[in-house]
From TrEMBL:
Annotated protein name in UniProt: D-alanyl-D-alanine carboxypeptidase
Comp. bias regions, Low complexity: 76-87
Domain Peptidase S11 D-alanyl-D-alanine carboxypeptidase A N-terminal, residue spans: 188-410
Domain of life: Bacteria
GO molecular function, one term: serine-type D-Ala-D-Ala carboxypeptidase activity
Keywords: Carboxypeptidase, Cell shape, Cell wall biogenesis/degradation, Hydrolase, Peptidoglycan synthesis, Protease, Signal
Comp. bias intervals (Basic residues): 57-75, 88-116
Annotated spans, Disordered: 52-133
């Protein structure tokens, strides 16, 4: 291609065509312009297309820039609406709380019932349901709302919220509370085979475990011995001597009170209740008017009088396994024993120095809970033989003012009976006021 144009553009043209240099220069310019025109058409088209794309992209970019602030405004608009709605709800709630206190002083007006047309019923089924609500339910709801408002108004006047009811057993219906350790697991850990706990003030049983099971009661019999002997009105300062007839021929138990020892009847009663002295109880039954058989008959008669149908006595000491009763009936005996001042005094005494005519003997209380002040009781008695196990009855004074009778029968060890007494005393002191 360059070979075709070369002759025209070559410097030797003036010599070939014998043309002046000025004409040749003009020809060159014209040719060069034609060439540029022919070659420049596609270039201009490309430049125009590029310019069109550039301008279109610019317009799109400007349109996106303009749309972004609009989107931000659209986002902020619901937020403003939400904040306005929450503010209106707060204002409505404050107005409602202010109006509730004012409405409590006035009578609760019956709520207005909106008229429901067929069109509204079709549009809103809830309106139709509201119409079907009976008037009594509406009135009850209004009354409940008025009562709630009155409670809130009273709490507002007192300057605080209403305090919850304390979990303490009341006098009307006392009970042992789980928060005080009275749980099924704790009850299973009791060592005694039969337990009966009754609140003396309200005659409410607080806990029963085999309470009607007939069992040997051992030296708990001495409470009935003291009751029957005091009913006979003996001379308390008169002396009483221990004889061979007072020896134990059933269990052949040992006693510190030797045959021939002479004590006052008061001291015999004292060590019989406090230290469970068997020979002292035997001497008291022998000294009864009519002798020992009359005394045993009087004990059984007293049991029937105290509504103890399952209770039987064969001797005054309790060494016989045929002296039987139940945990529930022994609570009645404890209640009756509390009516005798000497039984109250002697049974809870910690220790006593007793003159016997052959020297002095120091006796202590067999109930370690009472002796060491672990419980505050007004009447107590312990008892043990192999057939009965370890037994204990007490009239516990909860917080020194509230009497509760506790009877426990059949523990295998004296320590088990003591631990049961400690556990039950904690239940009572925590649950009752």
């Amino acid at each position: 291609m360059s070979a075709l144009w070369y002759p025209l553009l070559s410097p030797s043209l003036p010599r070939l065509y014998r043309m002046p240099p000025r004409a040749i220069a003009i020809a060159r310019l014209v040719l060069f312009g034609v060439i540029l025109l022919i070659a420049g058409l596609p270039v201009s088209d490309a430049l125009a297309a590029n310019a069109h794309q550039t301008s279109t992209g610019k317009r799109r970019h400007d349109a996106v820039k303009k749309k972004k602030p609009v989107a931000k405004k659209a986002k902020t608009a619901p937020q403003r609406k939400a904040t306005a709605a929450s503010a209106s709800r707060k204002r409505t709630a404050t107005h409602a709380t202010k109006g509730r206190t004012s409405r409590t002083s006035k009578k609760a007006a019956p709520p207005r019932r909106a008229k429901v047309t067929k069109s509204t019923a079709k549009r809103s089924p809830t309106v139709a349901r509201r119409k079907a609500v009976p008037k009594a339910a509406v009135a009850a709801g209004a009354a409940a709302g008025a009562a709630a408002g009155a409670t809130a108004a009273a709490a507002a006047k007192s300057g605080g919220t209403a305090a919850p009811s304390a979990q303490v057993s009341t006098d009307a219906q006392p009970r042992l509370l789980a928060r005080c350790g009275f749980t099924p697991a704790s009850r299973k850990r009791l060592f005694s085979k039969a337990v009966y706990i009754v609140d003396e003030k309200t005659h409410t049983p607080l806990f029963t475990l085999n309470a009607d099971q007939v069992r040997p009661i051992a030296s708990l019999s001495k409470l009935m011995t003291a009751v029957v002997w005091l009913d006979s009105g003996p001379a308390m300062r008169a002396p009483l001597t221990v004889t061979n007839a007072d020896l134990d021929t059933l269990k052949f138990t040992h006693s510190r009170l030797a045959v021939g020892s002479t004590l006052s009847r008061a001291n015999m009663l004292h060590i019989s209740l406090m230290a469970s002295e068997n020979r002292a109880a035997a001497a008291l039954s022998r000294d009864y008017p009519g002798g020992r058989p009359a005394f045993i008959s009087a004990m059984n008669a007293k049991a029937r009088l105290l509504n103890m149908p399952n209770t039987r006595f064969e001797n005054s000491t309790g060494l016989s396994p045929r002296n039987v009763s139940t945990a529930r009936e022994l609570a009645r005996l404890v209640r009756a024993s509390n009516g005798y001042p000497l039984i109250r005094r002697y049974s809870i005494d910690h220790q006593q120095l007793v003159p016997t005519g052959k020297g002095q003997l120091q006796y202590v209380n067999t109930n370690r809970l009472v002796r060491y002040g672990k419980v505050h009781a007004s009447v107590q008695k312990t008892g043990f033989i192999n057939e009965s196990g370890h037994n204990m009855v007490m009239r516990v004074m909860v917080h020194k003012t509230r009497p509760v009778i506790v009877t426990m029968l059949g523990s295998d060890t004296p320590e088990g009976s003591r631990l049961d007494g400690v556990r039950i005393a904690h239940w009572l002191s925590c649950s009752l006021r």
